[in-house]
Amino acid sequence: MRRSYWIFAALVALATGCSDGRLPIEGTGTSERIANAVDEGPVPSDAEFQFVIGLTLRAPEALHKYIGDQPFTGDTLAPDDFAEKFALAGGEYARFVSELRAQGLTVVATSAGHTTVTVRATAAQIQQVFGVEMHRYLDNQGVFVAANGYLRAAMEVVTPISGVVGLDGEQPWISHRIVNPAPVPQAGTKCQLSAASNKGLAPADLQALYGYAAAGVAQPGSGETIVILGAGGGPTANDLGSYVNAYTLATNVANQYHQVLVDGPNRDPGQDMDPMGEYGENVLDAEMAFALAPYATVQHVLTATNYPGLFTDGISKIVNDATLSKAKAVTVSYAGCERGAQGEMTVLNALFAQAQAQGQQWFFASGDTATDGCRNGTGNKIITASWPSSSPYVVAVGGSSFGTTVPTTATVTTAEQPWTDAGGAPSEAFDKPAYQTGVGTGANDNARDIPDVSAFADPNPGVCTIDSATSTTGTTFGGTGGTSAATPMMAAIWTVVHQSVHAAKGETDFTQGLATIYTIGKGVTGTNRSTQAWKDITTGSIAGPGGGAGGYAAATGFDNASGWGTPNLAQLISVWP
User: Is the per-residue pLDDT at 414 higher than 50?
Assistant: First the structure.
């Protein structure tokens, strides 16, 4: 029996008491990282921490049925409606928040869906309320701070809690952006497949690759919103403006691009990720969104750090905010590892389920280390899936390549292959969801398999970007890729499909979620699979653990190398339910 983290279970162990009268909070405690680290002792008592408390859902079975029926009903909820149907009742939620304040904790944010509370506290307050000390640890990844044991609390605090994110020393989520040693950009050089040098995929190349001309969508993305979740500093208006001008995209950056800061400006520790690395990721995400949905509104939500606690706060913000929650697509190019993430899985999956119920689909990069989803700098040599792309409620986006033959703009429809480094693997944490039953080479593995679909990700030749961290001249250049490029592309295409199928009929609240990808995939048959809604990838493979042998090969239909394949916008629109 594989390990399963039951998303909708009430995880509080009330039967086991503690000598001080506190009860343990299930899913918290010393992580695998702490087990392999040197304990350097307690942090100062006035050191402050921010973390997210997840709350148990009230009607998980009903929620499961609601989401399962959505492909047929198209129903969606607002966050407060979600709370009324599936989460803590208003009075219970208010009492819990009041109790946190009574215990001396600072409530930073509540959630309209009653699924989370964001809290700030000092080390002394954490010890008083949860019975643990916050310690400084050292391992081969650097210095980190974590609770030195299982969190415990009084019954009135423990009872509603499903998990706590931000106190167990989790690794930061890592960007899945890859920068290839590209040709040095020259003044006046145009980055596009038709260029004599400095090739990369420009917006026109991407639109040609994914069937935009045949789709004939007027003003792609118009009336739609794409939300990007990132960390650190967002792209400047100058970079985005230079990009849309260079490629004559009909995008008004001032009106269509907005930044939303969560927990203040960038305060990411330098040892985990260079701030300009975060900047490059944020630029890539925004430019790929506009490349394929140039008329869309982009809301860029930027957390102050790339640690899971702050990212969870950002996720809750997007799912519960009155404006952001209405977006049909959210793209995230950062990811962690299933191993060691058990404490956050219940909290985040409840938020992703809430998003599905509200008609919002999340897209996560499947990773850039092939089957080694838990990359640690040297390779684990073990097949592992990245997280949260392995969540059964999000679309895991893999990566494609042209192999050794780089096409021109005129031949960009050349058959794609899996990008050898694109993430793909069966989950160690989640059983196979109903929508994956009976599909693909992993039909009998009893696991959630990723990726679901793919888009172009190979950094050779990469996509065209303008990034002032690399070039101050406004020159565009290629060589940037990774599943960080593919994921915002898929989110943009999703919004264009929604615009064309549902919004065009006035069905602005109507939604089709992740299961629809599989409904369409199962319906693609015959010898012309490569021209249908999901362009099937049947040759090539992704690498095995550590970059060697033992990976996954592409096959007819669904596989762990590329999922269902890459999108064909015109065909997707024609067969979308």
Answer: yes
Per the CB < 8 A criterion, the answer to whether 71 and 512 are in contact is: yes
Q: Report the helix count and the strand count for the chain, using DSSP H and E.
A: 16, 27
Residue 7 CA to residue 430 CA, distance in Å, equals: 9
Residue whose entry in the numeric block shows the structure tokens 């799912």: 319
Burial of 44 (0-12, 13-18, 19+ CB in 10 A): exposed
List Cβ neighbours of 14 (8 Å cut-off, separation of 6 or more): 23, 155, 158, 159
CA–CA dist 143, 136 (Å, integer): 7
Asked whether residue 484 carries a pLDDT value surpassing 90, the answer given is yes
pLDDT at residue 17, as a whole number: 43
**Which residue type sits at 565?**
G
pLDDT(509) > 90: no
C-beta pairs of 118-121 under 8 Å, 24+ apart in sequence: 118/50, 118/51, 118/52, 118/53, 118/313, 118/316, 119/50, 119/51, 119/52, 119/53, 120/48, 120/49, 120/50, 121/48, 121/49, 121/51
Report DSSP letters for 461-488, one per residue: T-EEE--TTT-SS---EEEEESHHHHHH
Residue type, 149: G
Taking alpha carbons only, the member of 143, 446, 91 closest to residue 270 is 143
d(CA 288, CA 203): 8
Using only C-alpha atoms, the chain has a radius of gyration, in whole angstroms, of 23
Would you state the pLDDT for residue 214? 92
Torsions phi, psi for 390 (to 5 deg): -85, -5
Give the orientation angle of helix 60-73 with respect to helix 79-86, to 10 degrees: 130
pLDDT digits (tens, 9 = 90+) for 54-86: 999 999 999 999 998 888 888 899 999 999 999
Structural domains in the chain, sorted by start:
23-165 (no CATH), 174-575 (3.40.50.200)
Query: How far are the Cα atoms of 462, 483, 530, 549, 561 from residue 400, in angstroms, in the given order?
Result: 11, 9, 14, 19, 9
Strand 463-465 versus strand 417-418 pairing type: unpaired
Contact 514, 361 (CB under 8 A): yes
The mean-pLDDT minimum among 148-162, 260-274, 325-339 falls in 260-274
CA distance linking residue 25 with residue 373, whole number of Å: 28
CA distances, 365 to each of 110, 311, 390 (Å)? 28, 15, 10
- Return the percentage of the chain with pLDDT > 90, whole number: 57
Average pLDDT, the chain: 86
CA angle 563, 567, 570 (to 5 degrees): 150
pLDDT band with cut points at 50, 70 and 90 for residue 530: low
Amino acid occupying residue 34: I
Over the stretch 213-222, which tens digit does the pLDDT of each residue have?
Answer: 999 999 999 9
* Mean pLDDT (whole number) for 40-61: 94
- Return the structure tokens found at 43: 């942090």
In a 3-state reduction of DSSP, which class is residue 71? helix
When mean pLDDT is compared across 117-126, 462-471, 534-543, the lowest value belongs to 462-471
